[in-house]
Write a structure and sequence with these properties.
Number of helices: 3
Largest sheet: 5 strands, mixed
Radius of gyration: 21 Å
Strand order of the largest sheet: 1-30-31-32-33
Number of strands: 36
Distance between the termini: 35 Å
């Protein structure tokens, strides 16, 4: 079908409105809590028979992020090992869009890999960042470190602009521009974080854009070089703010976070209102959690604001603070960082930080912080801490007074959210990099070995199901509009109680 005819047909369709049950970003809107209010979700499923399986969509061969759902679309990132478009050959980062109800493929954003250094954009991992949906637009941080704004319908409804060079963007710099088609993304604007801010992206960009009003808050993935012992761009910011309508840079943090990054700046920001003051919470690659005032209005054109912290909380105050990269590879003593996001629930900030999973000590903590204070609140703001005797990469889930978290030693933990006292633990069969999802009285979690667990949420541990998925799961589970979404390395699976 000709592109023009395809566009004409698409214009007859009505866009799906945002629904209350959508999950448009990684974690709950603003707070980042990995708990959901969804009901009537399955406590078991069978891939072979199709029991409680609504649909299955094929991805690439490596998928590391969490799906997001909004306005009738499901977005997930992957690689290009199973091309949807045979014109795109070789290693690429890919964002795929599917119809929420049927799982039918809608369009994709194809992004060439950075080729000058593997440690900028690691081979074959594709695109690693979860997308954020805001009404009829979607935002993602690509493998090249770009924040890209797209329409949610793709080019099937025409090129809405102002960006018109999709064909150039999807081709490698050494190749001629390609001809865009109806199954390609419709880009609205691009902000190239890596090049505009002259920072050093490490391994791959990982960021979940936080949208509040007209503003996007994004961590930058600034990190070490390939030796893991030097910071090429120590003065680059760890957190920036863009105008969501235009992609204009309006602010960047001014806390010198980049000077003490032990590995990379991969933790995304969250938001909460504290005593009537809207605060952005962010853990830098230096293992310190900061609170910044949220923006109410943009500065004048051409002006970039410098953000000073309202408070800061050192997640590991006894860690080495000088010559931190001499501790690289030390599994007993090192600086700390965070992979998961800080989250704001019931007037408290909950976070997990500790030794780097690849290069640091085998130690982490979940900490509960009182965000009502100002200044250095490392001591005064600590409400409680729960020690985890290994690494943890997760954002916790908090529901009904309980906090759930995972670690890299195959363990799911449940603790009292008010006191940090242990309630129960559960040993799985595989290492866990994903966050737990708590929804409908159930805890959902997948492992890197390929076993998927569903347990009862609550103070009494009870295993409801254990399913062998046949391949690793690295992204977290998402629930939206009566459906549970599970991403394995090569599949996006929608689970729904059969007959609903």
């Amino acid at each position: 079908m000709k592109f023009a005819a395809f566009c004409c047909l698409a214009l007859l369709a009505t866009s799906v409105a945002v629904r209350a049950g959508d999950r448009p970003q990684f974690g709950q809107q603003f707070t980042r809590n990995m708990a959901s209010d969804e009901k009537n979700l399955p406590d078991s499923f069978d891939l072979a028979s199709g029991k409680n399986v609504a649909w299955v969509a094929k991805l690439g061969t490596q998928s590391w992020s969490t799906p997001t759902i909004g306005s009738g679309r499901v977005l997930v990132t992957t690689n290009n090992a199973n091309p949807r478009d045979p014109r795109h050959k070789g290693d690429r980062g890919v964002l795929m869009a599917f119809d929420e109800k049927s799982g039918q493929f809608q369009w994709q954003l194809i992004v060439p890999k950075l080729e000058e250094d593997d440690f900028f954009d690691w081979p074959n991992v594709g695109m690693c960042s979860p997308a954020t949906i805001d009404g009829q637009r979607a935002y993602v941080v690509t493998n090249r470190g770009e924040v890209v704004c797209m329409t949610l319908d793709g080019l099937a409804k025409g090129n809405t602009g102002p960006f018109k060079d999709e064909g150039r963007h999807m081709a490698r710099p050494v190749d001629p521009a390609m001809e865009p088609g109806p199954l390609d993304a419709d880009i609205v604007w691009i902000y190239d974080v890596r090049n505009e801010l002259k920072l050093h992206q490490h391994d791959s960009a990982h960021a979940s854009p936080l949208i509040d009003g007209d503003f996007i808050y994004v961590n930058t993935s600034n990190g070490v070089d390939r030796t893991h012992r030097a910071l090429p761009t120590p003065d680059a910011p760890g957190l920036i703010v863009l105008d969501k309508r235009t992609g204009r840079l309006i602010a960047k943090e001014d806390e010198a976070i980049g000077r003490d990054v032990i590995h990379c700046t991969w933790s995304s920001p969250s938001l909460g209102e504290v005593n009537g003051r809207r605060l952005i919470f962010f853990i830098g690659g230096n293992g310190v959690c900061y609170a910044f005032d949220a923006f109410k209005e943009a500065p004048p054109a051409g002006e970039v604001k410098l953000m000073k912290a309202v408070w800061k909380f050192d997640c590991d105050p006894t860690a080495p603070k000088e010559k931190i990269h001499t501790y690289v590879g030390n599994r007993k003593e090192s600086a700390s960082n965070a992979y998961g996001m800080p989250m704001f629930v019931d007037g408290r900030v909950y976070l997990i930080a500790g030794g780097d999973v690849f290069w640091g000590k085998r130690q982490s903590w979940m900490k509960c912080v009182d965000p009502t204070k100002t200044g250095d609140i490392t001591q005064s703001g600590l409400v409680w801490q729960y020690e985890i005797p290994t690494h943890s990469l997760c954002t916790p889930a908090i529901a009904d007074g309980l906090a759930y978290m995972t670690d890299c030693a195959k363990m799911l933990h449940c603790v009292d959210a008010a006191t940090g006292k242990i309630v129960w633990t559960h040993k799985t069969n595989g290492e866990i990099w994903a966050c737990p999802l708590v929804a409908d009285g159930k805890v959902y979690i997948g492992t890197r070995k390929g076993d998927f667990w569903i347990l009862s949420a609550g103070r009494e541990k009870k295993v409801l199901s254990q399913i062998d998925m046949g391949e690793p799961m690295n992204g977290s589970v998402t629930a939206a509009n009566g459906t549970v979404y599970v991403t394995t390395m090569s599949r996006l699976i929608a689970l729904r109680i059969s007959g609903r």
